[in-house]
Structure formats: C-alpha cells, structure tokens
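Example 403, ligand phosphoric acid mono(formamide)ester.
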Amino acid sequence: MFFGHYRSKLHEQHRHFFAYSIAYSFSKQKRRNGLGQSQFFYPKIAYHYQVRYYLRHFCEQGKSHRFFENALISVFFFLLFAHKTSFSMKQFTSVKDIDKLPELIEEAFEVKKNPFAFKQLGENKTMGLFFLNPSLRTRLSTQKAAFNLGMNCMVFNLNNEGWSIETKDGVVMNGNAAEHIKDAVAVMGQYCDVMGIRSFANLQNRSEDYAEIVLNNFLKYANTPIVSMESATLHPLQSLADIITIEEHKKTAHPKVVLSWAPHPRALPQAVANSFAEWTVRAGYELVITHPEGYELDPQFSKGAIIEYDQKKAFEGADFVYAKNWSSYQHYGQILNQNPAWTVSEAQMQQSKEAFFMHCLPVRRNVVVTDQVIDSSHSLILQQAANRVVSAQTILKKMLENS
Ligand code: AN0
Ligand code: CP
C-alpha cells in the first residue's frame, strides 16, 4: 500500500513532466516563429501547474502530511525544470545578469583558445546590431564574435539611417518623430534572433538617462535576447573584456585596481566608469576610485570601492591603473574640472607597483594620458581591445546555447 501510494504519485508527476515539456517546446516554437511569448512563459506554466497540483491535493485529501509530500516532490521538479531554463541567457545589460563570474571567465578563456569550436551554434541565425551613437570597437568586435559563432549580422545606424524615433510613451506624434521605438524594436525583432543596442546618455536629464528608456524598450519589445553595447549607465561588454585582461595579467589573486578620472574637453557619460566599478568589485579586486570632488559616481554602481581624492595617494601600490573621463553625476552632465595635473603621466605611474595601464579607447592622447604611458610596455590597450571579441563571443554563445 505504501509503495502503491508512491507509484501513483510518480505516475502523476510523469503526467506533469509531459505537460511541462509540451508547454515548453510549444513556447519555444512560438518564440522561434516570432509569435510573441514572453521569455518567462515556461516558468509561468510550471508555476500554474504547481498551484493547481497543491490545491487539488489539499482539497481532495485534506491531510497535511500528504500535502507536504506533494509539495516537496513538486518543488523538486520545479527546481529541476527552472534550472533547465537558466541555461540560455536572455539579456546582458550589467554584471547583475551574470550568476557566476568565475565560471563566465573560464568560459571566456575556452572561447579565446578555441574561437571556432562553436560555429554550429549560430547557423541560420541573424544578429542585429543597432547603433544610436558612433562606435569602432564595439561595432567590429561584436560582428566578428557573431561571425565566429556562425551567425549572419546586420548593422544599422538607427540615428542617421532610420526614421526619427519617439521614445516617450503616450505622446501625440505630430512632431518630427516618424515612428515609435516600441514599433521599430518589435519589427526589428522579427528579423533577428539576437539584438545588440548602443544608446548613450544624452547628459541633459539624469532621471531620464538613468531610467534607460531605450534599452528597456528593447528588453520589452524585441522578443529576442538583448546585448547592451553601451547603454546610458553601463558598458558591460567593455567591462567583461577588461576583467578578462586583468585576469590574464594579474600577479596576485586580489590585485589593487585604480580607476582614475582624467580630463577631457567634452562631457562624457559615466557608463564605462560605473560598469568598471561594479564588475571589478564583483571580481573581488581592491578598487580605488580617484577623481576631483564633484565627480562621485552613482553609489549604486560604486559601492564597495574606496574613494580617494588625492590621485597620487590612490596610485600607491596599484597593480592596474584604468584611466577614464566622465562628466559629473551630481551636477549632471557638467564639466567641473579640466586641470591637466590629472592627466595620467609617468609622475603618477611611478607611485604604483609598476602598474599596467588600461583605457577602453577611444582616447585623447596627452589629455587623458601621456604618449609615454600609453605607448609603454605596461600599456594593455590593445589586449583590452582584442578581448572585446572574446567578451562578446562568450555572451553570444551563452545566448545561443539552448535558445
Ligand atoms: C564614450 C564614453 O565615454 O562613454 C564611449 C567609450 C567606449 N566615449 C566617447 O564618447 C569619447
Ligand atoms: N571601447 C568602445 O566601446 O569603443 P567604441 O565606442 O569604438 O565601440
């Protein structure tokens, strides 16, 4: 009798198993055909079945021990299937989209060693790269990553080649904008299996920039996995390439990394600095950020870093120095300081532990950093740029796996 009870329970669970599997493959098929199911369709179905299962057994049997038995078996199955769904990455917009950074870095080294080993993953798939701002590295390295994975690639400069786009919801569109971003994105999603979007901060309105309106419209309406190719607040493909580069060159497990603000004639976004801060803290490095007063980053990204206003002091004992300009977050978008004493030169580098020099590029020579430092044997700028392919390919590979 005891075993009979469990046998019938197993039968019941099998029925659930089949229901889940059919629902899952159906939702995937629909997604592939572009018929529009949310990426959370499968877990929702599973949840629906669990709730029905609990209620039915609770009402029919009215016995709490049976209820808990059923609940335990259901939780086991739910975790098993929920785990299966986590294989395929749906968005890459920040370090928060990464569960296990050490595993991602291992995967990146595999990709770097064997760039063409996963060429079948992208067969008959199309990547769309959409730019609202200029780009050299991101544009070329992400295309190359897509090619290495066997994908076709379309590149579209939305700003000057497409229709002018409205990003605000609910407006009467009788001005310049010819189409709404939600329509444009949904249409582009019909032509692509994966999409990348570059959309810088406009540096006029902080709350609009930090709301990531363009990126969020892509996440909401594209119905494909989305890669940020630098958003208003973050540049995760750059940061992953930077982490890979540091991992390749570090001599201690937890190196001291200094992010140094440097002068620039134009107001630049905080995205590269925000992103570098959150990735290096997550990687377990000692991060010191140095900048003149008024250049404090948004604490949601810089938390875990030490802020040091004295640049030379910050450089003491550094293993890596990462130079970058950004405009003020507090006095939003403003240039508060142009003092050439902040240009990274030998004078500051001498304070460090023969630190490696890093910059994401493009860089203004002899404004941000002197020729002497950027051309020295300790400069990693080309290694960083080369690792942009590895970074993009690792992320795209994760998106294509089990997609
Ligand atoms: C951009 C920025 O600072 O965000 C892109 C860097 C990758 N840089 C410039 O606009 C010069
Ligand atoms: N570092 C970087 O993202 O460069 P691009 O702006 O040229 O893509």
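Summary: The pocket of phosphoric acid mono(formamide)ester (ligand 2) is lined by residues 135-139, 230, 238, 360-362 (CB under 6 Å).
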